[in-house]
Amino acid sequence: MLKPWTFGTVLALLLMPSTVLAQRVGSVYWQSNGGGCVPTDKTIRSQQYWTVTGAGRVKYRGNGTQPLVFSCPVSNINSNVSGGGATILRLFYQDPDGSEDAFQVEATLKSFAKSNGAYNSEVCKVTSNKTGQWQDSISDFCRIDMGKNIYWVEVKLKRTRPSNSVVEFNGVSLESRIL
């Protein structure tokens, strides 16, 4: 003989899929593609970069070897994200030699304290370490407090020698992680 379903059992079965989905949705606090970031004055003057406007990626132009530096202001934090205990910085890139150092892309989350302007040069940092056309790497956990600090991500592309190989900055994001 089958037992009748209780209201609580039916409700739990109906809500379970949305709870699982909610764990995946809303994990990104903020994100920007490479083309959404601002090149520094020195990067502009070097005339060694170009933005692939159709895809928002940033890469070297020609045979330049000066570091390319971009500032990505962190604004419009997604308020629907559950804090989860920690935040990671994710970097999307293309690096032809992975963890070697002829080519490199690195992103550093920086901040100023709103109360007194104290500068934190490295809240967290991530460096390209995988070879391939579309890769991503994540930082160690970093703590952010939007109420107390103003944040931006500084991204550097480095190339130690002229090359036809492509090193590019595709994007960055701040994401929630459950500890």
Description of the molecule:
This protein is mainly beta and 179 residues long. The protein contains two helices and eleven strands, in the order H-E-E-H-E-E-E-E-E-E-E-E-E. The chain has a single domain (28-178), classed as Galactose-binding domain-like (Jelly Rolls, Sandwich), CATH 2.60.120. It has helices at 7-24, 41-46, and strands at residues 28-33, 38-39, 49-52, 57-60, 68-73, 85-95, 103-113, 119-127, 132-138, 149-159, 168-178. Strands 1, 3, 4, 6, 9 and 11 form a six-stranded antiparallel sheet that branches. A hairpin with a 5-residue loop joins strand 7 and strand 8 (119-127).
Helix-strand blueprint:
Layout: H1 7-24, E1 28-33, E2 38-39, H2 41-46, E3 49-52, E4 57-60, E5 68-73, E6 85-95, E7 103-113, E8 119-127, E9 132-138, E10 149-159, E11 168-178
Antiparallel strand pairs: 1-11, 2-5, 3-4, 4-11, 5-10, 6-9, 6-11, 7-8, 7-10
Sum up the structure in keywords:
179 residues, mainly beta, Jelly Rolls, 6-stranded antiparallel beta sheet, 5-stranded antiparallel beta sheet, 11 strands
Structural class: mainly beta
* Overall mean confidence score, pLDDT: 82
Which sheet architecture does the biggest sheet show?
Answer: 6 strands, antiparallel
Classify the fold: give the CATH topology.
Jelly Rolls
Tell me, briefly, the overall form: globular
Task: Tell me the strand percentage band.
Answer: over 45%
Oligomerization state: single chain
